[in-house]
Fold this sequence. Notes:
Layout: H1 2-14, H2 20-45, H3 47-66, H4 71-77, H5 84-115, H6 122-127, H7 130-136, H8 141-147, H9 151-174, H10 180-200, H11 218-246, H12 248-286, H13 288-324, H14 333-358, H15 362-387, H16 389-414
Amino acid sequence: MRAGRVAALSVRASLGASAATWVLLQQVAVRGLVAIKFLAIGRILGPAAIGSVSVALLAVAIAESLSDTGLAQAVIQGREAPTRDELSAVWTTLVARGIFVGLLLVALAPLMESQFHMTGELLLLQLAALLPLIRGIASPTYFVIQRERRFQHIAFVEIAAAMADCSVGLLLALGGAGAYSVLIGMALGEALKSTLTWATMTPRPPLRVRWHGIGHYVAFSRWIWASSVVNLVLNQFDKIVVGKMLGPAQLGAYQMSSRLAQMLLADAAIAMSQYLFPTFSAHHRSDAKKAARIFKLYLAAAVVGLAVVVLLLRWLAAPLFSLVLGAQWMSAVPLFRIFVINMSLGALIAVLVAYLRAVGDAKAATHASVMQVIVLFSVVPPATHYWGVTGIAWGMTAGLGTAVAWMLYRTVKAR
Length: 415
């Protein structure tokens, strides 16, 4: 009887609203749907179309990184929960940011079209401007839900949005919509997510323009903004170089190898950081030593698991590409073998960043990113000269390794 009660309690705990089970379920479902959409559409459309979409999403990533407010992380990390008026000010700021980024992307679309050799793709680039606008109107209560670790609710919203994105994108691709199918699917998925944040999450902030009341978030969020700007260089520099020099088709091959490695390695850690950041934050508020012990356990598990997966994926790279994507993508195999190393380092960084931000040391991640930029700019020019596009990939490896080493040092200091 006692064993049965313990088992029942264990099951209820694993399915509680704040259980990591929901983060894992969200990870498997969302990343699985993204993988199905990305790989299926890649096989249908080929490298050139994927490259065109990559340029459009590159523009969105650049604009959003440069305008990142850091308010989401500040709300989650803050000692006091935000009031409804504060949430209203957060929403006003995010809506203004979304409108600004959207208009900027529309204005810059002709320049992007000419610089990345995308003749006739102006409308595709302008369509991408919908994404930041739709994201901006979502309810900031989503950040409160994350702060309170209501992962069951978050999983419901994220999985529903991913299902809409995947199903619409695939149907449009099969119907002949080409590269537009990817962006339309993403836009509809984001629209559903924004709608659900207002329909299912409370407390809802007042829908009025409010600019003051969140100044106390700025000291923390400025480091998030600085980190976003530096990460923009780190995450998009290689794609800009490849797209500018070689055009959409080569960028498509480069992007596919990177995205496939990311889906198989880094995405799991990035998704898990949605659980780790608020969890580390909660433990640190009550017991810093306990938070440090929990962090060490997660980090050790990540190191062992990633080492095994990297060795396996490097061994299976060629048959994996042949089976999943077809012969037209085999040129990306050497790059994929490098990117699995890069993405494993990126997965470790996700765990490290979650802990450092949770203990209030957000600037450590920014410092690590600056070091990574310095290494990247120092290594990539000669590496590209001798090894071409693979030199860029290995340059990213050197920078990521430097960032991991620095953040490990900072976590030791934090404890």
